[in-house]
Design brief:
The protein is built from 11 helices and no strands. The chain is mostly helical. The chain has 2 domains: 74 residues, Rna Polymerase Sigma Factor, Chain: A; 94 residues, Arc Repressor Mutant, subunit A. It starts with 10 loop residues before the first helix and ends with a helix.
């Protein structure tokens, strides 16, 4: 890295990025805000912030920088923690069958984008943010907790509950009861 201006982003780079990635960026914004009009405002605010700092960002970091700005603007706008942190942080209420219902996000992430988004929009704002940041954006539990200003344990509990809720919704839509599905998954795992 030599740090000359040719390695840095320009205003035009960000305008092109926001234009060429409009569908993905709109999906992210709408999923986090759950409001079409608000998501447009968030995208415009994130583009404006991107343009202000364009010369400070290396081109290879441009996409992740833009997505992080969108996430930060969504957090500041929606304030997903305004209702407080999750009630339970002890992790002792989930049975093995409950955890088997979630397991990992692979099944959920393999859903078509519209179906995944519909399931995400059924979550409360904090759960939606935690799940999107962890499962879709690849943030660690600690990074997610820091961005949302919540405890690591609350972040993990929220993530597990969000995944569990979405899997139960998915399983129910396939005509199988969540308890039967959990037992099948648990028996395969054991």
């Amino acid at each position: 890295m030599n740090g000359n201006m040719h390695d840095r982003c320009t205003d035009n780079d960000y305008r092109e990025l926001f234009a060429s990635s409009a569908t993905q960026l709109h999906w992210l914004c709408y999923t986090l805000t759950a409001d079409r009009e608000l998501s447009e405002k968030v995208l415009n605010a994130a583009l404006e912030q991107s343009l202000k700092g364009a010369g400070q960002v290396f081109r290879e970091w441009m996409v992740s920088w833009a997505r992080r700005l969108i996430i930060r603007v969504c957090i500041a706008t929606v304030r997903p923690t305004s209702l407080g942190a999750p009630q339970c942080q002890c992790g002792q209420h989930e049975s093995e069958a409950d955890l088997a219902v979630f397991g990992s996000p692979e099944l959920l992430l393999s859903l078509p984008a519209g179906v995944l988004q519909d399931n995400l929009l059924r979550l409360d704002p904090l759960s939606r943010f935690v799940f999107v940041l962890r499962a879709l954006e690849g943030y660690s539990r600690h990074e997610t907790a820091l961005l949302l200003n919540i405890d690591d344990r609350a972040c993990e509990w929220t993530y597990m509950q969000a995944g569990r809720f979405m899997n139960i919704q998915l399983i129910s839509s396939m005509g199988e009861t969540p308890d039967a599905r959990a037992m099948n998954v648990y028996q395969v795992a054991v």
